[in-house]
Write a structure and sequence with these properties.
The longest helix is centred in the N-terminal third of the chain and has 16 residues. Helices cover about 25% and strands about 20% of the residues. By secondary structure, it is α/β, with parallel strands linked by helices. α1 crosses α2. The strands form 2 sheets. It has a 7-stranded mixed sheet. A 3-stranded antiparallel sheet has the order 5-8-7. The relative contact order is 0.18. Bound molecules: 6-phosphogluconic acid. 6-phosphogluconic acid binds next to loops.
């Protein structure tokens, strides 16, 4: 697996271009498994993303040895406003490609309840975060996830922070219901305070259709940067791109 590591643009991100989508998924698995193996010493909190790229990552991760799934907690960066059995459910995709394949206690899987009214689902998830991390003081700083997996849409959205939507201006609530008019739907999403508190963030971005958004994320025009550019975590941030997406940075 070869990769060209560049520090594209002016943002302090590590951008790694790998040969294929599968190489992206394998490298994400290597990084994630290393982090999850700290589950032998303590609880480890992993946030999963929706979309199609994570499916192969989940399949590889399910095969990794020496992860104490008993102490791994699974969270979701966002969810569609659908039941957990719906074809569009991020939870259902994670259950089918990862959670049903590992010995993780059901109580450790923290599902956004897309079947509820959106605001109720957001409040319930925030309560779950506060209870699980013991952050019941309203003035508490957000929880720090050990690893946050994110994707990016071809419009530059990440999680369910879509261009032009209200959630982009939310800096207090940790979880909100976000109306997405361009998709004629509502989503549940983590917000900047929680996303940017993460210790490690991995973007998995594949496909030529992401090139325009990638150039905008790393471009010099701050006004043109899409939501994904707002991910500037306290911890480290690595972008794993396949060659089709990474061609965005080809200057030749
Ligand atoms: C969702 C995802 C979304 C996803 C991107 C990229 O719920 O739709 O959270 O933000 O990460 O759309 O998806 P792909 O991995 O399919 O390119």
């Amino acid at each position: 697996m070869s990769d060209s590591t560049t520090n594209a643009g002016t943002l302090p991100n590590a951008v790694r271009v790998l040969a294929s989508t599968q190489d992206v998924q394998l490298e994400a698995t290597r990084i994630a498994a290393d982090i999850l193996r700290t589950s032998h010493e303590r609880d480890v909190h992993l946030v999963l993303s929706g979309g199609s790229t994570p499916k192969g990552f989940h399949a590889f991760l399910a095969q990794q040895p020496d992860i104490k799934w008993l102490r791994v907690h699974i969270w979701f960066g966002d969810e569609r406003t659908v039941p957990p059995t719906h074809a569009d459910s991020n939870y259902r995709m994670a259950r089918e490609t990862l959670l049903d394949l590992v010995a993780i206690p059901p109580a450790n899987v923290h599902r956004m309840r897309g079947e509820l009214p959106p605001d109720d689902a957001a409040l319930a998830y925030a309560d779950d975060l506060r209870t699980t991390f013991g952050l019941t003081d309203p003035a508490s700083a957000p929880p720090r996830f050990d690893l946050l997996i994110l994707g990016m849409g071809d419009d530059g959205h990440t999680a369910s922070l879509f261009p032009g939507t209200a959630a982009l201006h939310e800096y207090t609530q940790w979880v909100v219901a976000n109306e997405v008019p361009q998709q004629d739907t509502w989503r549940i999403t983590l917000t900047w305070p929680v996303l940017n508190a993460a210790k490690h963030v991995l973007f998995l971005v594949t496909g030529a259709n992401k090139q325009t958004a990638l150039r905008a994320v790393f471009g010099d025009d701050a006004d043109a940067r899409p939501p994904a550019a707002g991910i500037q975590p306290a911890g480290d941030l690595t972008w794993l791109l396949d060659a089709d997406a990474g061609a965005a940075f080809d200057t030749r």
